[in-house]
């Protein structure tokens, strides 16, 4: 069965949110999108070209995507280069959250790589969020050597960038599931080590202890996942 709006056969990839999942995005191939100069590394996906999705998207210099609407919202973190749209230019480190019903025509002059999540917001969300994570403050998060930079907070999810100094260990969060993406350094999650580019998802009740042997900075979303399937 194909997606009638795009003609693409639906893809189901780590789509069951109640199951644990992890992806080494650095080991994935870049897959061409329907737009020239735009490629993706698919992390999780449920649908055709219009899909609930988490991906890395790479824009070649001078590339652009046609104007489109995000019926269920979009959020992204710029990992490389500068990403631009109707709202302006967003250099590396920019976190952007566009609510359901928003639209834009993204492009880039110098090229960009973004971590992007599509169709994962509730209909009632209306606020646009722009955060420059290179200048926004990190605040103590409880344990010594653990700091947090809050990007978004609501009763249904919390998004942040966190960092741990070398040797810091934390108990499992138990905050309604969590999704992590390692930005730099080494993350120990449940005793397993993950480098930059690693993506990890655990359902509510499956969260694991977090530590770092040499320091780490990671993007994290919590509180948005169901419990494990019974």
Give the tally of β-strands.
22
Radius of gyration: 17 Å
Provide the low-confidence segments as ranges: 1-6
Biggest sheet features: 9 strands, antiparallel
| DSSP helix fraction | under 10%
Instruction: Identify the overall geometry.
Output: globular
Give structural notes.
The protein is mainly β and 230 residues long. The chain is built from no helices and 22 strands. The protein has strands spanning 11-13, 21-24, 31-32, 38-47, 51-59, 68-70, 74-85, 88-91, 94-98, 102-104, 112-118, 129-132, 139-140, 146-153, 158-164, 169-170, 178-185, 187-189, 192-194, 198-202, 210-211, 216-222. It is globular and about 45 Å long. The chain starts with 10 loop residues before the first strand and ends in an 8-residue tail after the last strand. 32% of the residues are buried.
Describe the secondary-structure layout:
Layout: E1 11-13, E2 21-24, E3 31-32, E4 38-47, E5 51-59, E6 68-70, E7 74-85, E8 88-91, E9 94-98, E10 102-104, E11 112-118, E12 129-132, E13 139-140, E14 146-153, E15 158-164, E16 169-170, E17 178-185, E18 187-189, E19 192-194, E20 198-202, E21 210-211, E22 216-222
Antiparallel strand pairs: 1-4, 2-20, 3-4, 4-5, 5-11, 6-10, 7-8, 7-9, 7-11, 9-12, 13-14, 14-15, 15-22, 16-21, 17-20, 17-22, 18-19, 18-21
Would you summarize the structure shown here?
Helix content is 0%, strand content 49%. It has 230 residues and is mostly beta strands.
Write out key terms for the chains shown.
0% helix, mainly beta, 230 residues
């Amino acid at each position: 069965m194909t997606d009638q709006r795009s003609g693409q056969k639906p893809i189901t990839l780590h789509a069951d949110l109640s199951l644990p999942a992890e992806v080494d995005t650095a080991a994935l191939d870049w897959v061409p999108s329907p737009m020239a100069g735009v490629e993706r590394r698919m992390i999780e996906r449920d649908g055709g070209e219009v899909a609930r999705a988490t991906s890395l998207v790479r824009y070649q210099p001078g590339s652009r995507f046609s104007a489109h609407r995000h019926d269920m919202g979009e959020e992204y973190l710029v990992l490389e280069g500068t990403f631009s749209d109707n709202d302006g230019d967003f250099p590396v480190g920019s976190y952007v959250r566009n609510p359901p019903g928003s639209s834009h025509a993204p492009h880039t002059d110098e090229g960009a790589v973004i971590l992007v999540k599509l169709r994962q917001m509730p209909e009632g969300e209306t606020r646009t969020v722009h955060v420059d994570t290179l200048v926004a403050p990190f605040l103590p998060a409880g344990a010594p050597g653990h700091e947090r930079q809050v990007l978004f907070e609501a009763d249904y999810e919390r998004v942040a960038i966190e960092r741990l100094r070398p040797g810091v260990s934390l108990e499992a969060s138990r905050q309604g599931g969590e999704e992590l993406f390692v930005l730099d350094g080494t993350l120990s999650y449940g005793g397993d080590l993950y480098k930059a580019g690693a993506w990890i998802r655990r359902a509510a009740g499956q969260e694991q202890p977090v530590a770092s042997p040499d320091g780490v900075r990671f993007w994290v979303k919590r509180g948005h996942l169901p419990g494990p399937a019974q």
